[in-house]
Amino acid sequence: MKDRFPVCRKCNEGVLIPLSDYGRDGAPIKFKAWVCTNPPCGFNIRIDNGEISYGRSVSQSTK
After folding, report:
1. Are 54 and 44 within 8 A, CB to CB?
2. What is the mean pLDDT for each group of 10 consecutive residues in the chain (63 residues)?
3. Which residue among 24, 31, 41, 44 is least crowded, i.e. fewest CB within 10 A of its CB?
4. What is the Cα–Cα distance from 52 to 9, expressed in whole angstroms?
């Protein structure tokens, strides 16, 4: 897997994997977020309403 995805530059142990979602109208949003596979690291970068944010805690959706 480390050959296919970028190494996390925060911890250098995990890799960043892409996550997708659906928009308000049901359109798919590819690569909405990239999340480190190393749970203690917790690094993530995401797009919300056209703005890029990073470092927010990641949790499981209740939806």
Report:
1. yes
2. 81 94 85 92 87 74 65
3. 24
4. 18
Contact 47, 30 (CB under 8 A): no
Q: What residue ranges do the domains of the chain occupy? A: 1-51
Secondary structure (H, E, C), 1-63: CCCCCCECCCCCCCEEEEEEEECCCCCEEEEEEEEECCCCCCCEEEEECCEEEECCCCCCCCC
Distance CA 36, CA 1 (A): 12
Return the structure tokens found at 40. Answer: 């203690």
Task: Give how far Cα 47 sits from Cα of 1, 3, 4, 12, 18, Å.
Answer: 24, 25, 22, 23, 12
pLDDT at 63: 62
The token pair that represents 26 in the structure block: 């049901």
